[in-house]
Amino acid sequence: MITISSSSFTVTRRPLIAPVQPTVSNGQRGANFSLASGIEGVGTVVLNGAAGDSGAGWNVGFLQAQWIETNWLAYRGLTQADGSVFVQRARPPARPRQGCFDCLVAGAPFYGTGANPATLVPATGGPALPFVAPLPASPGFPLTISAVHADFPGDFAPFSRRNGHTKKMNFLSEVQLEFHFCISLVVREPGGQLHFLQNLYWNVHWQNKFAFANAAANPAVTVVAAGTAANVGHVIAGRISDARFATVLTTPQTTNCNAIASTAEQRPNLTETAGWPLFNVTR
């Protein structure tokens, strides 16, 4: 019988916010919100067993849930008569819920299943490690096995949007983005049972103001310091008990964060108005 003897999770690279840059995405000029470096970490598990125990079907890897998103864009015309637009991408109905399973393939248990690279050299060096580490079919015990986690969240905001109320072009004036995550190092048995071993909260925030001299120029960008940061918490051992997203990680999910975000981006909650009012960004 295979048993878990010990585990550890070490952050090898901390996320770092990059300056907002003008870019073109799908033919649109806009602002690119990205990281100068993403988060990376290495999880290591020591397993014991008897001679002849098979490791077939056992895996070590990471699950990740996103449990908070703030995502709004405000636009203004070059004059008050051109009006304003408020684009909300993080509240119902655009985003029906906050908590979601952050993976590339809906229903896949592990972060890194799909288009992510199969292996990654940790920032601290050493050999390349897999995102999902299978146990050998005939392991020798005790067995030490490691997996890697890496993530680089970001977003894009178009510089301009036509105001349906005034029929004038409005331009990006402010953006606030907040993405909060929890990473869990797990061992998965062949039957699907998950053993939650080590957990880590982390988040990234961007808040920027934009000023356009004219429609053709790139805007002047101001960083709102109080709303811009990347934070990493302390590693917490044991099973996830946070009611805000625990069920996301422990029950099968038919969708994922990428699909939810894509739908919200395509069909955001819109407020289009004349003048330059102050919008309630919580709605």
Please characterize this protein's 3D structure.
This protein is mainly beta. It is built from 2 helices and 21 strands. The chain has one domain. 5% of the residues lie in helices and 48% in strands. A hairpin with a 2-residue loop joins β3 and β4. 36% of the residues are buried.
Return the average pLDDT rounded to an integer: 93
**How many β-strands, per DSSP?**
21
Question: Sheet with the most strands?
Answer: 11 strands, antiparallel
Which of globular, elongated, flat, extended, rod-shaped describes the shape?
elongated
Low-confidence stretches: none
Strand content: over 45%
Q: Share of helix among residues? A: under 10%
Q: Work out the count of structural domains.
A: 1
Number of helices: 2
**Helix and strand pattern:** EEEEEEEEEEEEEEEEEEEEHHE
Terminal-residue CA separation: 52 Å
Q: Helix/strand/pairing class, anyone? A: mainly beta
> What is Rg?
22 Å
